[in-house]
Amino acid sequence: MTRFPSTAFAFALVALALISSTAFAQRDPNRMTHGPMLGQPSSTSVAVWARTSDAGEFTVHYGTRPPENHGGDLSDHVSEPGQTRIEHDNTGVTLLRDLKPDTRYHYRIYVNDRPQGEPGTFRTLPDEAGSKSEHNPDGLFNFRFQIGSCANQNPLHGIGHDSPTYKHLNQDWADKVHFHIMNGDWLYEELREYPAEAWRLTQGIDELPQVVQTMPTVTGVWENYKLYLTRNHALSTWHRNVPSLFTFDDHELVNDIWGASEAGKRHRRTVFRDIGTYAWNDYLGWANPFESKQRLHVGTAKLTAGSDLLVDRQTNFRQLPLNEMLNLHVHWGTDTAGVNDMIYDTDDGEANSYVYDIVEVVDEHTVRLHMPAKADGQVSYSIGQRSYGKFSVSNCDFFLLDTRGDRDMHDVSQRDKPGVSMLGKHQREWLLREMRASDAKFTFLISSVPMMIPHSGAGGFEADDANKEEAWTGFLDEREILIDAWDEMDKQVFVMTGDLHNSFAIRVTDNVWEFCCGPHNSVNHVPELDESNRPATGRFQFGPRECDIRWSSYVLADLPRLERLYPHFCVVQVNNVFNMPIKQGDKRLVAYPHPQVVFQYYDGWTGELAYAESVSLPRE
After folding, report:
1. Count of beta carbons in the 10 Å neighbourhood of residue 78
2. What's the gap between Cα 601 and its chain centre?
3. Which side of the chain, N or C, has fewer Cβ within a 10 Å radius?
4. Under a CB-based contact definition with an 8 Å cutoff, are residues 125 and 143 in contact?
5. Could you give the C-alpha distances from 566 to 160, 474, 551, 607, in angstroms and in order?
6. Using an 8 Å Cβ cutoff, are 516 and 618 in contact?
7. What is the C-alpha to C-alpha distance for residues 596 and 441, in angstroms, rounded to an integer?
8. Phi, psi (rounded to 5 degrees) for 148
């Protein structure tokens, strides 16, 4: 008689088989899992990013001929290898150099000498040498870029996993714009509780890299980025074909992160700054120029109750350029530190988790903090980075500002308090110094938060209503200092903003404008409730300065929250020259006496033009 094993025994056999097969299984060959993305646009180079399944390297095959219909590789060049490293979630970047200006290229990622993913294309910027003529002695040229913000993929807080904005961008603008600026909130918090151990198993490694041991919640932010790239194909297509630059706002870190520069502040969101920034460096920040090349520092240290000394035997503080870095944060230490939910805004974090100023370097392994520790213990800490930078195109300067990393704590009961800063002293002084020294006629200041309109509501989402303020209207003293300084400069200044989930064009002074661009995919805010009841158009004043709202997107308060889905994006066109050759089809550029910048707002649902504003140099 045939006997069958008991159910328990059968399960045991299956489990043993699974364990055995797992133990002896080999990982698949290394491959590209996410990407490619393009960044660092210029006339002669571009950066290419990719993520691989294992640490390793990739190359880029590229040239001016598109791939054949059957996928044949017609590339003329192969890049230097891009290295992907486990401590950066297997992400990496390589730079394509010695490109021809104003030229369309085609490219594809290769791993292990095999093609990966879909091919991409991009166009380099024109340059001065190729644009000069007797009628254009300065070699000026025209260019376009797209700018926007706020692309929530959660269907509870926006349009969802699909994105009509990016579909229209791919269809209508990918081959017309030279680059793209995502001005904050590319990412919104999901998967932030993803366990470090689950991440380790997925990577097939024996032990966690030191950076994950020190700040394990970074794995949740990495997973958040991968989810966004995987889930929205139109978004990934856009980044594959258009070079981008990025600022971070709060959601790349954690929603409503305030007071990162405020010595002595204790809040779990505040001290998540560097964990979020580390992941942003890996997935988006690589695309940017930085004024300082020093990235943030992460370590573990010993603190003693009543002592103001922090001791880290693995770090030589004398070798860290602390004068180029931000302050020190001791991390919160809970699994939910980066989750966007107010139920976790409690006081149950690490006892020594505060914002600290570094007073002095005592010796190689010791720094003195501005206040003593509360308890004995080993802590995870980080020292922040300066995440701002600058680049120039033709007669235009672009300043990518950091409005979160060195930000003082605001107080809505005293919005004009002297000395309270959003940028921090170093960034503000750098900005004004660079602007005054530049002969650029147009300056674009990329600020992730609004300048003239308050952001005092959360669009129906939970918030700390008693002190809610994201915009420069919580930093009126610094705002007015900056606007007065800009207004005296011999240039047109455009403050490009985001965060507020509405678009608007505002004339601040004769020389200073604000253009808020977005949202790309997030639910709109209600001006009556979230923006101090500003009008759709017309005069508006909040604080000491009146401004003129020329146009805005505007949602009425009677709409249910998930009916407030009105995405917008902005295309900016810089008109410096026109073409007037002796023979049709040739090139002879003629400079305008008064160049113009045209700001064009488009409806994200239809792709139709909603509004345009043209600003030119003043007539003399």
Report:
1. 12
2. 21
3. N
4. yes
5. 13, 27, 15, 12
6. no
7. 10
8. -165, -170
Whether the model clears a pTM of 0.85, i.e. scores above it, the answer is yes
Give tens-digit pLDDT for 250-272: 999 999 999 999 999 999 999 99
- Residue 605, amino acid: W
C-alpha to C-alpha distance for 543 and 38, rounded to whole angstroms: 40
Rounded CA gap, 317 and 320, in Å?
5
* Residues carrying CATH 3.60.21.10, the chain: 143-566+602-616
Task: Please measure the distance between the N-terminal and C-terminal CA atoms of the chain and give it in whole angstroms.
Answer: 107
**What pLDDT is attached to residue 4?**
34
Strands, E, within 352-507: which ranges?
Answer: 355-356, 358-363, 366-369, 377-385, 389-393, 396-400, 442-446, 492-497, 504-507
What does the alpha-carbon distance between residue 495 and residue 547 come to, in Å, rounded to a whole number? 13
Looking at 242-325, list the stretches that DSSP marks H as alpha helix, in order from N- to C-terminal side: 273-283
> Which one-letter amino acid corresponds to residue 202?
T
Distance of CA 525 to CAs 325, 327, 457, 521, 555, Å?
Answer: 35, 33, 8, 12, 7
| DSSP codes of every residue in 422-436 | SS-HHHHHHHHHHHH
In whole angstroms, give the CA distance from residue 257 to residue 259.
Answer: 7
pLDDT in tens, 214-236: 999 999 999 999 999 999 999 99
Contacts 24+ apart (CB under 8 A), 137-141: 137/591, 138/395, 138/591, 140/394, 140/395, 140/576, 140/577, 140/589, 140/591, 140/595, 141/102, 141/394, 141/576, 141/577, 141/589
Q: How many CB atoms lie within 10 A of CB 75?
A: 20
CATH 2.60.40.10 boundaries in the chain: 32-123
Instruction: Return the percent helix, strand and coil in the chain, to nearest 5.
Output: 20, 30, 50
CATH class of 143-566+602-616: alpha beta
pLDDT in tens, 377-414: 999 999 999 999 999 999 999 999 999 999 999 999 99
Rounded distance, CA 75 to CA 143, Å? 27
- Do 192 and 221 form a contact (C-beta atoms < 8 A)? yes
Nearest to 448 by CA among 408, 397, 485, 501: 501
- Please give the single-letter amino acid code of residue 572: V
The torsion defined by the Cα of 326, 328, 333 and 338, in degrees rounded to 10, comes to -20
Which class would CATH give 32-123? mainly beta
Q: Which of 66, 45, 101, 98 is nearest to 587 (CA)?
A: 101
